[in-house]
Amino acid sequence: MSTDRSLTHRAESNPEKIQQRPAVAPAVDIYESAEELLVVADLPGVTQDRLAVRVEKGELTFEGRRTEAAEREQGVEGLPDFRRSFVVPQGIDSEKISADLRAGVLRIHLPKSASLKPRQIPISVS
What we know:
The chain is mainly β. The chain is built from two helices and eight strands. It has helices at 3-13, 68-74, and strands at residues 23-24, 28-32, 36-42, 46-56, 59-66, 81-87, 98-102, 105-111. A hairpin with a 2-residue loop joins strand 7 and strand 8. The protein is elongated.
């Protein structure tokens, strides 16, 4: 039996199943200062090794998966993961975006580029 035929036969008779876990969009708070936008999200039961934050094509996405220990602690199996995306506004220096996770709270810092920051205009005397 050739490989092509085996693949075709398998696809027709038993399509491969893709495991996809349910996810919810966690509530977030967004704060703006002169220096940055700060996104704060509660992700209970998520640890650093089960969290991904990425910026791609002007979109910020974070995804977190709860630990089995967190599920046992809450007495529920199959709790949904966390997933949320935002469009990164213009004027954000995407190369300097940083994130930290402490006690289940994710903080994503989106620094403004120099052109958006307020600046003092020096006045010359003539």
